[in-house]
Design brief:
Layout: H1 5-12, E1 16-19, E2 31-32, E3 38-39, H2 44-55, E4 59-63, H3 69-78, E5 82-84, H4 90-101, E6 108-111, H5 118-123, E7 126-129, H6 135-138, E8 143-144, H7 153-164
Parallel strand pairs: 1-4, 1-6, 4-5, 6-7, 7-8
Antiparallel strand pairs: 2-3
């Protein structure tokens, strides 16, 4: 997938994978229902990638500036280790993750797609964005996925992290939550 030895070493060092939501776990579309609530569409393959990370012992987190019930349910279904919603300053969440789990920045992968993600992307050990991220983000990331946000980009990076650690699907219990 990504042939660089440096990228594989960075991925092998990852102990926590953190994700933005809109434009990463979703395609960025905002659907407002008649009652004013939001609806989101998530990709099942992306979900299975996150479940496989959890099964392999890699913690997972979501850091987003918004709050929706759909996201709460998605995080619960996927057994996300830590969910940060209404997070205007994403570095605060990143620092909390480091403190709570005794991690260094270089042990964290973060996937974002837009300007509010830049500071975190510049800080973590492995910075990733979907191929449809804004140019300012693509220019600073270690990896730009081949797939769009909400369309398999999350699964692509989950698979790469697992492969870099020498973990195959057969090594994991057959995960079913997606």
């Amino acid at each position: 997938m990504y042939d660089s030895i440096e990228l594989k070493l960075k991925a092998k060092n990852i102990k926590l994978a953190a994700f933005d939501v809109d434009g990463v776990m979703t395609d960025g579309s905002l659907i407002y229902l008649p009652d004013g609530k939001q609806s989101k569409t998530f990709n099942a393959k992306d979900g299975l990638g996150i479940v496989m990370l959890n099964t392999a012992g890699i913690r997972t987190a979501i850091i987003t500036a918004k709050e929706t019930n759909a996201l709460k349910e998605r995080a619960k279904t996927l057994e996300i280790t830590k969910l940060f919603m209404n997070q205007k300053d994403k570095m605060v969440a990143l620092d909390e993750l480091c403190s709570e789990f005794s991690l260094e920045y270089n042990q964290i992968m973060y996937m974002g797609d837009d300007l509010p993600d830049i500071e975190v992307l510049k800080t973590v050990g492995l910075s990733v964005c979907p191929c449809d991220a804004v140019n300012q983000v693509k220019s600073i990331c270690n990896i730009v996925t081949n797939k769009d946000g909400g369309k398999g980009a999350v699964r692509e990076i989950c698979d790469f992290i697992l492969e870099s650690k020498g973990i195959s699907f057969d090594d994991l219990k057959r995960p079913s939550r997606q």
